[in-house]
Specification:
This protein has about 220 residues and is mostly beta strands. The chain is about 5% helix and about 55% strand. It has one domain (about 1-215). The two termini are about 30 Å apart.
C-alpha cells in the first residue's frame, strides 16, 4: 500500500520532453511504450524490500494518454501550455508533475500526502496520510545519471520539498514530518531515477525511503 501511494505521489514518466512547443507532443511520443523499474523500499526498522514495477502506455484518446500499472491501476497524462498533467481515473486528483518551460529555476507547487506509519507498541499501527504542499523546482537540465555502468546524459533533475506536522495527543507532543524527493528524467528514456524520503522527529515514526531505478538492457 505504501509503495502504491509513493508511486502515485509522484511524479511519474515522460519521454523526449523539450518544451510545450514541441512539434510532437509528449502524448504522441509516449504511447505504445512499456518501462520497467527496480524499487527498493526501506521501512523505519531499516528492513529492505525489493520488487519490480512496470508501466505500459496505451493509445491516446480524447487528448488523454492512459497508463496501465502492473498492479492493474490506470491513470492518465495530458499536456498543455503549463506542463505535463497527471489525472486519476475518476479525475479526483489532477496536478502538474512537470512544469513548462523546461529550464533551470522553473518552480511550481503540488499537493501530496505523507505515508509514514505511527507504531505504538507491537500491535497498534496508524497510517498518517497527512496532506502537505510540495515546492518543486527544476535544478538541472543536463545532469548525468549512471545505471549499471551506463551513463544517461542530459537528464532533467527536479527537487521537491515539503513539511507538515500534527499532534497525536498525550503523552506524545507535536510531530514534524519532512518529505524530500529527487527525480531525474531523460529525454530518451523517460524517468530514470526517483528517490523519496520521509523523516519525522519522533521515534514512533522514524524515517522511510523509496528508491526507484529504471531497468536498462545492456
Amino acid at each position: 500500500m505504501q509503495s502504491k501511494i509513493f508511486y502515485n505521489s509522484f511524479i511519474l514518466i515522460f519521454f523526449f520532453i523539450l518544451s510545450c512547443k514541441s512539434e510532437m507532443s509528449f502524448l504522441e511520443k509516449s504511447q505504445g511504450k512499456t518501462l520497467f523499474y527496480e524499487v527498493i523500499f526501506l521501512d523505519k526498522e531499516n528492513k529492505r524490500n525489493v520488487y519490480r514495477q512496470s508501466l505500459s502506455f496505451l493509445s491516446i484518446s480524447n487528448n488523454l494518454l492512459p497508463v496501465l500499472k502492473n498492479d492493474g491501476e490506470v491513470f492518465f497524462f495530458s499536456q498543455n501550455e503549463n506542463g505535463i498533467i497527471k489525472k486519476t481515473l475518476n479525475n479526483s486528483i489532477s496536478k502538474i508533475v512537470l512544469a513548462f518551460p523546461v529550464e533551470v529555476g522553473t518552480k511550481w507547487k503540488t499537493n501530496d500526502k505523507t505515508t509514514l506509519q505511527m507504531k505504538l507498541g507491537y500491535d497498534r499501527v496508524y497510517n498518517t496520510n497527512l496532506p502537505l504542499e510540495l515546492e518543486n523546482i527544476i535544478e538541472k537540465t543536463n545532469d548525468t545519471v549512471s545505471i549499471n555502468g551506463k551513463k544517461i546524459k542530459n537528464c532533467i533533475k527536479i527537487s521537491s520539498r515539503g513539511m507538515t506536522s500534527f499532534n497525536p495527543g498525550p503523552p506524545l507532543s507535536n510531530i514534524k514530518i519532512e518529505v524530500s524527493i529527487e527525480t531525474w528524467y531523460s529525454r530518451d528514456f523517460g524517468i530514470v531515477k526517483y528517490i523519496r524520503e520521509e523523516t519525522s522527529d519522533s521515534e514512533t515514526m522514524g524515517k522511510i525511503s523509496y528508491d526507484k531505478t529504471m531497468i536498462i538492457d545492456n
